[in-house]
């Protein structure tokens, strides 16, 4: 029994210490969400690509969600080891900015290809996609073309969405409805209520329900079909385009003021937003790159239908009102 | 008359099976002795129906008992311990000897308790009774069940000398009064000598008249 | 038997009581430190108005948890009753599978349920093929939550109760059978007394699991209407960063849970039978047997089918994941964490249980019963934040501390289940063999080696299996600790789900389930053999 305990402790200590290797080179510590740093995510190739030139070690630290990275830095305050956070999005950028923890990136970023102009002094865009409802053309050949059409469908047409308090697409949908309908948002939510089978904590749970055909539509991204086409050769999963226009999710990265490696961090963000860094994004994070990759973009992405209209909300308005809008949504679907 | 004729049984992995032959008469106590592990409990389990013999016969007054499940055999049990349900009162334990909804249950229970030499403890929980009282309660239950055969498995071993003598006398008295065929398994020579009209001993898996 | 008379029969074991009190205090302090660290961190933050309607949440959560408890106990007792009576090839495997449900990550079970009962599940498709109409979607809403909880908790209850039923002494069964007790009287006179002592603790555990249930409520709840306090706490911490509000909600949850725990642990101990009996066969009447087979069949369909669905989905997905080095690293980490937490949890449970069994002072017994439930009463997200702050305040890098924190947290997580398995038999030994131990003048360590360890053998195996499997499944507590190299199978499964890789996720879920089942069938047998070798 004692031996087993000792062995277990030794293994545990071994697990714990692997992070503390390689002290000679500077280490760039980047907080991100789990999917980004996972085996299949963009973290692995980005680390390899940047380490080729930087003479440094990139250390991804994955929290369980993007908001988790911000909360961790808030808890750590000035003493945080993080140099950069990757993976916040424009819906929480205002709140993150208000913490005063982020430094200016100082990059020109003049070759971006985003739906809207980018002028952010602190945050650099990493990737983007529009929120959209997925449908399977076998089950639903004629998807609704607006929220109102969706609402008008028979009640046994079910959708799965995510909780705006825990999942970024959930929050994105709240902003989408608000941007499209303003004061009528509550009415739209009430209309959606009978169609909502469930509100899940994570995007992955809703999406699994959709793949298992437990729901007809799921809140996801216009780029989601690319995964199924490229990895499974399945062309039946499509994003339904709505006439109101779509709200985008733009994932961003920012440098922390407390970092003692501002220069290195800035170089990483420049790499991240360059075609070299961006070319790994589409087929690892299944989002659009923020620059024009030309031939290097997998052709499947070029075939994905894109919304004609991109909706926006001013950042100050999001920061000031998102709590109230979430409450409005929760009350309406309750 | 209870007759065992080459009643045979082997536990899984047991090389030579038990083969029991014996006779026990009503109104008498027949004792079975033998060292631990000689097969005394197996014999009782065969008679009570907890084990099914591989061959041989077991008859009571010519009636074949082998096909009967334990609850339908004309057999009552009195064990060293666990004979009573400790969370029930003495009365309710005795009442288990009657079929549910039997007429005049209360009166018959009181009468049985009295015959077993117990008064005023009917409402006491079994767990609070002394060892001797517990065996009396179990005997009272046997009275109500009114089965022909009474199997006693080391029933006195947990009792002090005085109580032991008294309970032994009670068993003999009840056996004679009700014409029970009582089979006593014990390795106390003392018990056997004091009670048995007929003695068997298990040697090499067989019963020998002692 | 009066309390005083029991007390005189208990062997005096002051060191056991002291050790247990010390551990109880340590766990209590840990929880206080966690909450304190969060409050200290919140000191600088502006106060935000509380968003959650506490009373509404408490009411909804209590209704859900109360219903879950009652249903789970009824189903659990019925299931244990069937399994105790029936003998069939593969019975051990079925018992193992039933127990596997509760320790499998909730989300895996939930998706398994959907594969069977969902809109596109086996039953709806079968019904559509046979009768041209689906039976409808019963897997969502309050009904869905209750159904999923009952599947998890009733199976666990059945496992615990079955161990008690299987331990009924042979002599008692012989007397009962020879008295010709019918199935009902047999249950009332023989079975019920054997399980009654276990029921309050079991009810408390089930209530607390349901009260704090998270993934299932979120997935199957259907929306914000069916929420638990724990979900609101999660929202307060994660979304609003309202730490003070989170601690307040956590205190409400702790208070509510403590009431339940106090009620359960204040009840006097009921002596429980020990060890498996020699396997007395006493079949009930044919009518009762028919009911038992029917109940068992229903439970198999309801409980085991979802797990089989998980296996089937894994097989269909293929096991390409086995070729990934991350998988093997995660598996090794999971096994190490699982073993470490299992040993710690069982040690804690034995220490607390022995201390509790050694005393008859009601207040002391209650106090020693409380810390067992620490993890169930304190929301995981609060523990996660608190542990993170504690580790940082101690000047340790979170990445370094992560494995140890997971081991401690998972040991606490499984402690209520382990204690529920080991506590009653430890009490029973003290009460039924106390006199003998005392009269022989056995020392505490001899008491353990010669009496408790051999008698507890199988229960120890069950406890180790429980703790081991629980620890495979939970990682909530290091949500913030993340390091690149630290991954476990459940974590990898979630990562795969989050990267569209549902096939990999399905394969990992199936592998987890197999691991859990093997542990559940194998460990109790192994430990029983070891313990008997000692005896």
Provide the domain count of chain B. 2
Give helix % range of chain A.
40-55%
CATH class of the largest domain in chain B: Alpha Beta
Rg of chain A is 21 Å
What is the average per-residue confidence, as pLDDT of chain B, rounded to a whole number?
87
Number of strands of chain B: 10
Choose one word for the global shape of chain A: globular
Output the structural class of chain A: alpha/beta
**Relative strand content of chain A:** 15-25%
Please compute the radius of gyration of chain B using only Cα atoms.
17 Å
What is the number of beta strands of chain A? Answer: 10
CATH architecture type of the largest domain in chain A? 3-Layer(aba) Sandwich
SSE pattern of chain A, N- to C-terminal = HEHHEHEHEEHEHHEHEHEEHHHHH
- The chain-level mean pLDDT of chain A equals 89
Low-confidence stretches of chain A: 16-22
Most strands sheet of chain A: 10 strands, mixed
**Uncertain runs of chain B with pLDDT below 50, 5 residues or more?**
none
CATH first level of the largest domain in chain A: Alpha Beta
CATH topology name of the largest domain in chain B, in short, is: Rossmann fold
Provide the CATH superfamily of the largest domain in chain A. Answer: Periplasmic binding protein-like II
Largest interface: A-C, 71 and 68 residues
GO molecular function, one term (chain B): ATP binding
Organism (chain B): Devosia geojensis
Keywords (chain B): ATP-binding, Cell inner membrane, Cell membrane, Membrane, Nucleotide-binding, Translocase, Transport
Pfam families (chain B): ABC_tran
Secondary-structure map:
The complex is a heterotrimer of chains A (334), B (210) and C (535).
Chain A: H1 2-17, E1 27-33, H2 34-37, H3 43-54, E2 57-63, H4 66-76, E3 84-89, H5 90-98, E4 102-103, E5 123-136, H6 147-152, E6 159-162, H7 168-181, H8 185-192, E7 196-200, H9 203-211, E8 217-221, H10 224-232, E9 237-240, E10 248-256, H11 262-272, H12 275-278, H13 282-285, H14 299-303, H15 315-333
Parallel strand pairs in A: 1-2, 1-3, 6-7, 6-8
Antiparallel strand pairs in A: 3-10, 4-10, 5-8, 5-9, 5-10
Chain B: E1 2-9, E2 18-24, E3 28-33, H1 40-48, E4 55-60, E5 63-64, E6 75-78, H2 90-95, H3 105-115, H4 131-145, E7 149-153, H5 161-178, E8 181-185, H6 189-195, E9 198-203, E10 206-209
Parallel strand pairs in B: 3-8, 3-9, 6-7, 7-8
Antiparallel strand pairs in B: 1-2, 1-4, 4-5, 9-10
Helix pairs in contact in B: 3-4, 4-5
Chain C: H1 3-9, H2 14-42, H3 54-85, H4 91-103, H5 106-117, H6 122-131, H7 141-166, H8 170-178, H9 183-196, H10 199-211, H11 215-220, H12 229-238, H13 243-265, H14 286-317, H15 325-357, H16 362-369, H17 374-377, H18 380-393, H19 398-432, H20 434-440, H21 444-473, H22 489-498, H23 502-534
Helix pairs in contact in C: 2-15, 2-18, 3-7, 3-10, 3-14, 4-7, 4-14, 4-21, 4-23, 5-14, 7-10, 10-13, 12-13, 14-23, 15-16, 15-19, 15-21, 15-22, 18-19, 19-20, 19-21, 21-23, 22-23
């Amino acid at each position: 029994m004692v031996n087993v305990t000792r062995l277990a402790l030794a293994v545990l200590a071994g697990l714990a210490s692997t992070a503390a290797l390689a002290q000679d080179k500077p280490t760039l510590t980047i907080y991100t969400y789990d999917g980004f740093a996972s085996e299949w995510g963009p973290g692995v190739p980005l680390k390899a690509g940047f380490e080729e030139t930087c003479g440094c070690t990139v250390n991804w630290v994955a929290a369980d969600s993007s908001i988790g990275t911000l909360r961790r830095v808030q808890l750590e305050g000035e003493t945080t080891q993080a140099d950069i956070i990757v993976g916040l999005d424009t819906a929480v950028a205002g709140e993150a900015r208000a913490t005063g923890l982020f430094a200016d990136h100082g990059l020109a970023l003049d070759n971006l290809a985003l739906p809207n102009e980018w002028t952010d002094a602190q945050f650099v865009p990493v990737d983007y996609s529009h929120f959209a409802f997925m449908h399977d053309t076998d089950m639903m050949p004629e998807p609704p073309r607006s929220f109102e059409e969706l609402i008008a469908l028979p009640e046994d047409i079910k959708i799965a969405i995510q909780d705006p308090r825990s999942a970024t697409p959930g929050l994105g949908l709240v902003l989408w409805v608000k941007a499209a309908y303003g004061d009528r948002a509550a009415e739209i939510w009430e209309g959606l209520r009978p169609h909502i089978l469930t509100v899940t904590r994570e995007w992955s749970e809703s999406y699994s329900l959709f793949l298992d055909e437990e729901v007809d539509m799921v809140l996801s991204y216009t780029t989601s079909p690319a995964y199924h086409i490229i990895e499974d050769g399945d062309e039946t999963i499509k994003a339904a385009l709505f006439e109101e226009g779509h709200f985008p999710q733009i994932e961003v990265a920012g440098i922390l003021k407390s970092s003692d490696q501002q220069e290195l961090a800035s170089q990483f963000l420049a790499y991240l937003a360059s075609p070299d860094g961006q070319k790994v994004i589409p087929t690892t994070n299944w989002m659009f790159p923020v620059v024009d990759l030309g031939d290097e973009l997998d052709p499947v992405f070029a075939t994905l239908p894109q919304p004609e209209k991109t909706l926006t909300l001013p950042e100050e308005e999001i920061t000031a009102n998102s709590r109230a809008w979430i409450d409005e949504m929760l009350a309406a679907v309750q | 008359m209870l007759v065992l004729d080459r009643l045979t049984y082997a536990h899984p992995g047991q090389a030579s099976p038990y083969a029991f032959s014996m006779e026990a008469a009503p109104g008498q106590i027949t004792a079975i002795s033998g060292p631990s592990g000689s097969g005394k409990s197996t014999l009782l389990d065969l008679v009570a129906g907890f084990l099914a013999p591989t061959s041989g016969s077991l008859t009571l007054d010519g009636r074949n008992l082998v096909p009967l499940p334990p609850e339908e055999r004309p057999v009552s049990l009195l064990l060293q311990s666990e004979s009573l349900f400790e969370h029930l009162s003495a009365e309710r334990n005795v009442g288990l000897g009657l079929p549910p909804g039997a007429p005049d249950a209360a009166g018959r229970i009181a009468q049985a308790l009295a015959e077993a030499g117990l008064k005023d403890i009917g409402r006491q929980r079994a767990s609070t009774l002394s060892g001797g009282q517990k065996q009396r309660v179990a005997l009272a239950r046997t009275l109500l069940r009114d089965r022909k055969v009474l199997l006693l498995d080391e029933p006195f071993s947990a009792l002090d000398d005085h109580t032991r003598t008294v309970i032994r006398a009670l068993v003999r008295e009840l056996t004679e009064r009700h014409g029970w065929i009582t089979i006593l398994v014990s390795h106390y020579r003392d018990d056997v000598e004091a009670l048995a009209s007929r003695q068997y001993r298990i040697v090499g898996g067989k019963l020998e008249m002692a | 038997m009066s309390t005083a008379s029991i007390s005189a029969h208990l062997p005096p074991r002051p060191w056991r009581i002291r050790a247990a009190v010390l551990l109880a205090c340590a766990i209590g302090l840990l929880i206080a430190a966690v909450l304190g660290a969060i409050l200290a961190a919140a000191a600088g933050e502006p106060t935000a108005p509380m968003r959650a309607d506490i009373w509404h949440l408490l009411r909804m959560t209590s209704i859900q948890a109360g219903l879950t408890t009652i249903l789970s106990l009824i189903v659990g007792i019925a299931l244990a009753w069937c399994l105790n009576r029936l003998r069939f090839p593969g019975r051990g495997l079925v018992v193992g599978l039933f127990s596997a449900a509760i320790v499998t990550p909730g989300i895996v079970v939930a998706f398994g349920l959907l594969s069977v009962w969902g809109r596109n599940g086996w039953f709806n498709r079968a019904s559509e093929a046979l009768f041209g109409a689906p039976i409808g979607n019963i897997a969502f809403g309050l009904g869905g939550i209750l159904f999923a909880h009952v599947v998890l908790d009733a199976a666990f209850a059945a496992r615990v109760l079955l161990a008690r039923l299987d331990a009924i002494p042979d002599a008692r069964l012989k007397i009962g059978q020879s008295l010709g007790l019918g199935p009902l009287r047999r249950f009332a006179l023989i079975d019920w007394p054997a399980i009654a002592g276990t029921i309050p603790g079991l009810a408390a555990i089930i209530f607390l699991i349901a009260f704090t249930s998270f993934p299932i409520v979120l997935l199957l709840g259907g929306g914000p209407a069916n929420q638990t306090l724990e979900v609101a706490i999660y929202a307060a911490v994660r979304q609003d960063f309202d730490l003070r509000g989170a601690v307040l909600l956590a205190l409400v949850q702790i208070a509510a849970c403590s009431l339940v725990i106090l009620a359960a642990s204040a009840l006097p101990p009921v002596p429980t039978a020990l060890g498996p009996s020699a396997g007395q066969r006493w079949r009930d009447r044919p009518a009762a047997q028919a009911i038992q087979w029917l109940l068992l069949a229903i439970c198999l369909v309801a409980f085991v089918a979802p797990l089989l669905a998980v296996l089937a989905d894994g097989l269909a997905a293929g096991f390409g994941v086995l070729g990934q080095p991350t998988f093997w690293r995660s598996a090794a980490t999971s096994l190490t964490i699982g073993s470490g937490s299992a040993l710690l949890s069982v040690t804690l449970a034995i220490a607390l249980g022995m201390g509790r069994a050694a005393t008859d002072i009601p207040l002391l017994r209650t106090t020693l019963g409380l810390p067992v439930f620490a993890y169930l009463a304190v929301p995981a997200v609060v523990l996660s934040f608190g542990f993170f702050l504690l580790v940082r305040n101690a000047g340790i890098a979170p990445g370094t501390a992560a494995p140890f924190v997971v081991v401690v947290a998972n040991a606490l997580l499984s402690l209520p289940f382990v204690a529920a398995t080991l506590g009653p038999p430890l009490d029973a030994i003290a009460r039924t063999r106390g006199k003998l131990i005392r009269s022989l003048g056995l020392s505490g360590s001899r008491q353990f080696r010669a009496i408790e360890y051999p008698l507890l053998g199988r229960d120890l195996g069950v406890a180790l299996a429980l703790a081991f499997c629980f620890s495979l499944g939970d990682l909530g507590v290091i949500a913030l600790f993340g390091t690149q190299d630290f991954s476990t199978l459940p974590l990898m499964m979630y990562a795969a789900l989050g990267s569209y890789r549902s096939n990999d996720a399905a394969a990992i879920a199936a592998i987890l389930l197999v691991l859990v089942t093997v542990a559940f069938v194998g460990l109790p047998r192994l430990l029983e053999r070891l313990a008997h070798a000692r005896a």
